[in-house]
Design a protein that fits this description.
This protein is an alpha/beta fold. The protein has 4 domains: about 100 residues, 3-Layer(aba) Sandwich (Rossmann fold), CATH 3.40.50; about 60 residues; about 120 residues, Tetrapyrrole methylase, N-terminal domain (Cobalt-precorrin-4 Transmethylase, domain 1, 3-Layer(aba) Sandwich), CATH 3.40.1010; about 140 residues, Tetrapyrrole methylase, C-terminal domain (Methyltransferase, Cobalt-precorrin-4 Transmethylase, Domain 2, 2-Layer Sandwich), CATH 3.30.950. It has 19 helices and 19 strands. The strands form 5 sheets. Strands 3-2-1-4-5 form a 5-stranded parallel β-sheet, sandwiched between helices. It has a 5-stranded parallel β-sheet with strand order 10-9-11-8-12, sandwiched between helices. Strands 13-16-19-17-18 form a 5-stranded mixed β-sheet, with helices on both faces. It binds S-adenosyl-L-homocysteine.
Length: about 475
């Protein structure tokens, strides 16, 4: 049975300057906790019958105070925080109970159950800190992450944070507008300051930042980035898409864009869902999107127009750029991984193959005026892969058209539903079975249809999620389960 996880811990950074912290325990475990507390400016009192060597030295230097004896609840008087670090579980429990009764947060070393506060793994660069917690689920995992972050963050970041702290008041008074300040920071980060700090030349770095501060900031003009968000898995975003999401003031996104992708956007960006509803008036929605794009860009904001997959593949991206061009608004386009390549990859279907397919066609089952008009005669030829977007409806008609025009009814097909998402399903069979396959498994949007010899390879090459489902699985659900196990 799945156990329900406790809610996530609430992260917090404490200002401990001149605030009393009680550490109970005089051994090496307690000694390991003390330096960080002293660094934070805390008034550290160590309660223990006797102190080990390291703590005794600190006490002699007057950096900590020793309270001798066995733990007594009045030790908690005047303490803001308690760390229980004795090697006696019963004593730790008494301390935890006493702290609980007085509503003082307590960390019990190596006992997440007793603790009301946990000490995170952390990465520190000067005043800049990243704290990591696994909520007690796996301290090893948190530690592993910490090691990775250590290698990622340059040592110069600490010095940069220090410099910016020194200049903070001047920056604030010169650049009163939040947008101006953000643009200034971006110029600083793109400029030479960090490289200078890395070389140890704090003086030159300061000059570079000051020069940037006094440079006349270019007037802020709004711009729009048309960004492809890929099929759903946030790992499939491009680095540039991620960067733009982090800089955006406004994000206009479709319904297809996954929550996992949106979670990577800047926290205070305004996120607007402009998704078209099934049965809604698409042209009205599209006009509304154009109006929103213009409105926010004209207000000087950085707008990200985020679309599922790639904006230029059945995404009406072209129409949106036309509207921007007409209004004289600057734009850029960032490609995304389109559903065809994503679903093919995640289903183990190579779209081309030396033996089976020499071309790929990206098609839609629907157009502006309803049914798609394609050159069915050409599409019915063998050894080419057809990929249909927006195709869970009208499958019987599609099959009939292809077969009437000469495609073999035994041609393999695969429907990929929710490609790249954890709940992805691949439904595979033959062209003749197509409508029945979809109904039998209750295929739902978003789903992509692959028609062609290569679709058969999913059975052998699948690697993500469950193996492909077939008609036999639907007729005999037990078989499907056995298959999946
Ligand atoms: N611009 C998008 C396509 C938009 S049209 C792109 O490049 O991918 C919407 C259609 O895309 C859906 O009806 C479906 O056929 C397909 N699609 C998008 N994401 C998908 C996904 N994760 N799994 C399966 N099909 C998807």
């Amino acid at each position: 049975m799945a156990s329900t996880l406790p809610p996530a811990l609430f992260p917090l950074f404490l200002d401990l300057r001149d605030r009393r912290v009680l550490v109970v325990g005089g051994g090496s475990v307690a000694a390991r906790k003390v330096p960080a507390l002293l660094d934070a400016g805390a008034e550290v009192v160590v309660g223990a019958p006797a102190l080990g060597e390291a703590l005794a030295t600190l006490a002699q230097q007057g950096r900590i105070r020793h309270r001798a004896g066995a733990f007594a609840p009045e030790w908690l008087d005047a303490a803001w925080l308690v760390i229980a670090a004795t090697n006696d579980a019963a004593v730790n429990r008494r301390i935890a109970d006493a702290a609980q009764a007085r509503r003082i947060f307590i960390n019990v070393v190596d006992d997440a159950e007793l603790a009301s506060a946990q000490l995170p793994a952390r990465v520190q660069r000067g005043p800049l800190q990243v704290a990591i917690s696994s909520g007690g689920a796996s301290p090893m995992l948190a530690r592993h992450l910490r090691e990775q972050l250590e290698t990622r963050f340059d040592a110069s970041l600490g010095a940069l944070a220090q410099l910016l702290a020194e200049l903070r008041m001047r920056i604030r008074s010169r650049l009163t507008d939040l947008g101006q300040r953000r643009a200034f920071f971006e110029r600083v980060l793109a400029g030479p300051a960090q490289a200078l700090l890395r070389r140890g030349d704090a003086q030159a770095a300061r000059h570079a930042i000051e020069a940037e501060l006094h440079a006349i900031p270019p007037p802020r003009t709004g711009r729009v980035a048309l960004v492809g968000a890929g099929p759903g898995d946030p790992g499939l975003l491009t680095l540039r898409a991620l960067r733009l999401l982090n800089e955006a003031d406004v994000i206009l996104h479709d319904r297809l864009v996954s929550a996992d992708v949106l979670a990577l956007a800047r926290r205070d960006a305004l996120c607007i869902d402009v998704g078209k509803r099934v049965g809604g008036n698409h042209d009205a929605t599209q006009r509304h999107i154009h109006a929103l794009l213009l409105e926010h860009a004209r207000a000087g904001q950085r707008v990200v127009r985020l679309k599922g997959g790639d904006a230029f593949v059945f995404g009406r991206g072209g129409e949106e750029l036309e509207a921007l061009r007409e209004a004289g608004i600057d734009y850029e386009v960032v490609p995304g991984i389109t559903a065809a390549t994503a679903c093919a990859a995640y289903a183990g279907i190579p779209l081309t193959h030396r033996e089976h397919a020499q071309s790929v066609h990206l098609l839609t089952a629907q157009t502006r005026d309803g049914d798609a008009e394609h050159d069915w005669h050409a599409l019915a030829k063998p050894h080419q892969t057809l990929v249909f977007y927006m195709g869970v409806q009208g499958l019987a008609q599609l099959r009939d058209r292809l077969i009437t025009h000469g495609r073999a009814s035994s041609t393999p097909v695969a429907l990929v539903e929710n490609g790249s998402h954890p709940q992805q399903r691949v439904i595979a069979g033959t062209l003749a079975q197509l409508p029945e396959l979809a109904t039998a498994h209750g295929a739902r949007a978003p789903a992509l249809l692959v028609v062609g010899e290569v679709a058969a390879l999913a059975t052998r090459l699948h690697w993500f999620g469950l193996p492909p489902l077939t008609l036999a699985d639907a007729r005999c659900p037990d078989a499907a389960l056995a298959h999946a196990a």
